Amino acid sequence: MAKGALLGPPKISAAEFDADRAFARLKRILGDERPHSVDSAANDFVRERLVAEIRAIGYEPEIRDDFACRTSQRWNAMSCARVRNVVFEAGPSVGEAILIASHYDSVSAGPGAADDGAGVAAALEIAAILKKRRPVRPVAFLITDGEEEGLIGAAAFVGNDPLAKRVSAAINLEARGVSGPALLFETSVPNGRDIAAFSRRVGRPFGNSLAADIYRMMPNDTDMSEFLTLRPDAINLAFADRAALYHTPMDNLANLDRRSLVHIGATGLSSLDGFLNLEHRRRNVPENRLVYADIFGRLFIVIPEYAALALLLAGLASAAVLFFTSASGAPLIAATAPLIAITAGGAIAFGTVSLVGAARAEEVYWGAHPEWTRAVIYVSAILGGAIASSIAAIADRNRLLCAGWFWFSALGLAAYAAAPGSALVTGVPAGLFACAALASIGARRLLAPFSLIALAAAIVLWAPMLHFAEVGLGMGSAWPFAVVAALIFMLAAPILKTGDRLSRGVMLGLSAALVLAVGLALFAPAYADRTPRGLNIAHVIGAGNDESYWSLGASREAPPKEMSAVAEFQRVRIKGLQGERTAAFAPRHDGEPVGVEIVSATSQAGRRKLLLRLRANGADQIVLEAPETAGLVAASVGGMSSSFDGEGRRTIACTGRSCETFEATVELRGEAVEWTVYGIRYGLGPESAEILAARPSWATPVHGGDTRIVLTRARI
Question: What is the CATH number of domain 4-280+292-302?
């Protein structure tokens, strides 16, 4: 177990990180706060100002200029762009390096003050601090380009940069919101050195190994996904509160929480010091797999994974032994009461949340007021626990308590099989219950009060975990949290048990509270200026016809009434796009279709190889979309090759000015079929001024933002 101050040298004070200086640098780098996507003029200006700031600190940065591609097998997508990574080093010029990474490009919808301006500003402040420290090992700073278009800059670094071969540890600074603490949400596997570096120095540690496991299961990536191919020690940090502003125009300096900038910077600096102070990497010594969790950012508990598993087994065994050695009190009812609680609580939460979701027209109906959906979930859990407690009123108190801890430990073992990182948040409470069982031998009346410590551990370990899971998953998917809450309720109920069934008044009160929470969740505003709806306007010219539309995407959520007053939106099919869209007829914009030319074609062994030449004709991004029937098995761009082996459509995208003329070699096992070709320009033209003005203040562009699109079909 580890509490930072107990391990190694003193922790770094956040006061060493100069927030005002870091924020002032970021303000100068962002300039007029325009969006600055990869290979755009706006990104050139940001990079020039970034390089000037690095030189002002006292370093001489190098720009790695590459045309690069990266393939995501998960999405069957190949993304290409010209990227200019910025690199500089502190400390010795030879030896294994610790990498501090961030990215300076933004999405086309917003200026990226948090994502990832805060990471850039934090990295530069760390570099300024190192000027006074003279680290004993090389510290390399990498500020990548093209992260938002598919980690292209990170892929170029890993594949082409000689510095990559020297990286032994990597610290990545990211954001998925504009405020909140910096969370340790990803490490390497195994993670012994990562956690040793993090836990020994960080003053306000936030992180949880279960959350890291959940992140690995999700379809999310940061530059760290590429760095991990180098097999370094790894610490990936991000803050994620106020996620509604992520990738929007509101990710700006005004909304960036300076406390988050300080925390991610101080945490990154402390983690760097932790790596610098590790004795050596001990490559030939097996590295432990550790599980970890913070307690409200004040303590950081770390234990070996096998020890957490042993605690789970101890809790399971002690609960079973005490249950079967109790001499009285309805054993079958006691044994099944926790299952009744989690089944009832989970079913009630699922039913009520599903009801609210079905009744609400908005997709993120909880956005402005998540507290009411949260109340629905946890009141459901309490009601489920109350039902089970009332049924189990005749059961022996200790037997009921042991049954609760038996199922807590058993479900913890099941969770461990799917997500080993869960072993601490279940194992520590289970182990403390085993201690309570041991301490109460010969005095069973003490079991309940002694188990209060285990109950408190379960609450303080799970409460932060559930909060950050809400942020990451959204309240619409949070009903399973009621299962956890109902089970914890059953760990508390026997301690407070009076031996009587709960009164009808208590049950009616809980039911009334649930009805009230459901009512508030049904009618509370879904969006507000501070928590806006993501709403892009795509001005689309359909493939092979003269129809032009304003499209609000595939979502079935109704357009704001202000926009419906300007255009008659309905569900339509736009030729060249999959499925129905919420769209309205619009005047044409002046975009031209992407030019597609088959330069050469050869056939061999049942496969066709084609060289395609595309002309952007003013588009900021070209996207080639091959249907599954095309049989696209491989593509090569600029000497970089990729294979496709998943199901569904495949895409090849090129973003930025360097894609004005773009060549790709594709290998196909199918006959010629029609592909869809997208020519995408960022922003809307003057013909869309009225619809743009009608978008309300509580709706905002997000991710790729508003676009003008020309769709064409090409037989390839």
Answer: 3.40.630.10
